[in-house]
Design goal:
The protein is of the alpha/beta class and 126 residues long. It has helices at residues 31-34, 41-48, 53-68, 88-102; strands spanning 2-5, 16-19, 78-82, 110-111. Helices cover 34% and strands 12% of the residues. The longest helix has 16 residues, at 53-68.
């Protein structure tokens, strides 16, 4: 599983790519959160305070399990992205990874853009 930021390049190759840019609260638009990352509790609280995100984690976990049940067993690659890759995507990936691990699956997790500099952009939330 890889979290990433669309503003830092193309999404990684994946079986499932989840685009979080338009549907969930973007901590970037809050000046007090902009320079924090998914490692900081206020960022996670902001992301998880958005309606629908817990359901998307559940649905994505179910999709991963469905892929694993297919005739060609092998790793399932999941990529989830937000604008900069520092807030929504890594928070989502951490929660999804925890849920899949709780189901007994082995999960490799990589945050491609978490430690990259903040991309200065407008207040559009994308």
């Amino acid at each position: 599983m890889t979290s990433f930021g669309y503003l830092h390049g193309q999404p990684p190759a994946a079986h499932l790519t989840i685009d979080l840019r338009q549907h969930f609260r973007d901590p970037h638009v809050s000046p007090e959160l902009r320079y924090l990352t998914a490692h900081d509790e206020p960022v996670g609280a902001t992301v998880w305070g958005t309606s629908g995100i817990a359901g998307l984690v559940e649905a994505t976990a179910a999709a991963v399990i469905a892929f694993l049940s297919g005739p060609s067993a092998g790793p399932v690659l999941v990529a989830d992205g937000c604008a900069g890759g520092r807030h929504r995507a890594p928070v989502f990936a951490n929660r999804l990874a925890a849920q899949l691990r709780a189901s007994g699956l082995t999960v490799a997790l990589h945050h491609r853009d978490l430690d990259k500099p903040v991309v200065e952009r407008g207040r559009c939330g994308r």
